[in-house]
Write a structure and sequence with these properties.
Strand content: over 45%
Number of helices: 0
Structural class: mainly beta
Number of strands: 8
Helix content: under 10%
Distance between the termini: 11 Å
Order of helices and strands: EEEEEEEE
């Protein structure tokens, strides 16, 4: 079963959600723009209070994938996402968690 979460994001807000992952699960992250202007997201993943992945200003083009992270341990992961850099003031990001094979 694939978990998919889609968030509408806007500048000057951090959006947060939590997801339970099993060891070996993989999370992928993609971004979509509103209109023709790219969305430039800033994302941090935390587990047990530790940052396990993040970017602070990655230039992403329309629908480009940012991460394909395999989790090393089971547990709750907090995902924080906002907008950084130039680009649109709002957009949509999607997250997919693929079960371990």
């Amino acid at each position: 079963q694939v978990l998919r979460t889609e968030l509408n994001i806007q500048r000057n807000f951090f959006h947060q959600f939590r997801v339970y992952v099993e060891e070996g699960d993989a999370l992928s992250f993609s971004t979509m723009s509103i209109g023709a202007i790219d969305v430039d997201p800033m994302m941090v993943l935390m587990q047990d209070g530790v940052v396990i992945a993040g970017n602070d200003d990655t230039d992403l083009t329309l629908n480009s994938a940012l991460f394909n992270i395999e989790f090393e341990q089971s547990g709750w992961v907090s995902v924080y996402v906002g907008l950084a850099g130039a680009g649109a003031d709002k957009g949509t990001v999607s997250f997919n968690v693929q079960p371990a094979n």
